[in-house]
Amino acid sequence: MQEGKVNEMQVGKKVLPQLDEKVNRNAKDSVFVDLFKHPEYLLQLYRVFHPEDTITREEDLTIITLESLFLKERYNDLGFLAGNRLMILVEAQSSWSVNILVRFLLYVADTYNRYIEKIDLDLYTSRKVQLPVPELYLIYTGERKNCPEVLSLSKEIFGMENVDASVEVRAKVLHDSKQGDILNQYVSFTRIFDEQVRKLGRTRAAVEKTLRICRERDVLADYLAKEEVAAIMFTFVDKEKQLARYIKEEREDAHSKGMEQGIRQGVEQGIRQGIEQGIKQGEETGTLSSIRNLMSSLEIPAEKAMDLLKIPIEEQKNYLYKL
């Protein structure tokens, strides 16, 4: 790399200017999600899960990954439908945690709820509804040895081995696969990246070395040759700051609406007391609007929204009553 070009990076035939020097801590997750947005790679992953199925095509797969309305933040790594037969949810993680089973439980419930709403199923008639069969996969890329082939909610979370629970979740654990298939390549990519980060830190050099080694070893070579992949690995979004800014704007908007409405009402009444009373009522209206906006955008309960808006505990009951 030429001197003076420290903020540029050669990827394929293009030079990417002004990339952030800080490597995304979720770089591997970001690559996983972006990789399987591409229909050809998603089909390859499906074939890892179902090698016996030679009929399903790219157009038969529909991505249904859960997202929050706020900042399009992902709730889970990957969800997709195979026709209307299978609902497949996939999580990739490098740190071992059986809590993934609880998250899977929530993902399944939320995904079914959205599926039912989308195709307008009626659950309150005697006619039986048809739902796609769920399949849950944990792709583990960490260093833990002797991973179980299956994790179950009853055993790991409820502590009830060999006892049927009313609610059960079972997830298949995959940490490698057939040499050269798409899953094996992704796992290889994560291990190469981890090794380079250990050697070089979370630096541009670590990303460059990872991409070079992967190309040399034919690991996701075509995908990693895309210039946008390097940008994905460098992208760093401080969601906490964005959330704080969003909440601050909501507070300011509520106050502004309150002042505006209060002054208008007060002028109409023509007395100072009316102005003060109008401002108070207007601020309350604006705050209620902000609470509802946060509840909708972040998909959180009213109490959490009021905490984020720093509404005093003694005032929250009043707002709850009026929501």
Give the CA-based shape: globular
The low-confidence runs, each spanning 5 or more residues with pLDDT under 50, are 1-20
What value does the Rg take, in angstroms? 25 Å
Give me the strand/helix succession: EEHHEEEHEEHEHHHHHHHH
Strand content: 5-15%
Strand arrangement in the largest pleated sheet: 3-4-5-6-8-7
Number of strands: 8
Tally of domains: 2
Helicity, as a percent range: 40-55%
What structural category do the secondary elements indicate?
alpha/beta
Please work out how many helical segments DSSP would assign: 12
Q: What is the end-to-end distance?
A: 59 Å
The chain-level mean pLDDT equals: 81
**Main sheet: strands, sense, barrel:** 6 strands, mixed
Kindly list the characteristics that best describe this protein.
323 residues; two-stranded antiparallel ribbon; 6-stranded mixed β-sheet; 50% helix; alpha/beta; 2 domains
Structure description:
With 323 residues, the protein is an alpha/beta fold. It has two domains: 15-234, no CATH class; 239-322, no CATH class. 50% of the residues lie in helices and 12% in strands. The chain has twelve helices and eight strands. The chain has helices at residues 27-35, 39-49, 100-118, 153-156, 182-200, 204-216, 221-224, 227-234, 239-269, 272-298, 302-308, 313-322, and strands spanning 8-11, 14-17, 61-63, 78-82, 86-93, 133-140, 150-152, 170-174. The strands form two sheets. The protein has a six-stranded mixed beta sheet with strand order 3-4-5-6-8-7, sandwiched between helices. It has a two-stranded antiparallel ribbon with strand order 1-2. The longest helix is centred in the C-terminal third of the chain and has 31 residues, at 239-269.
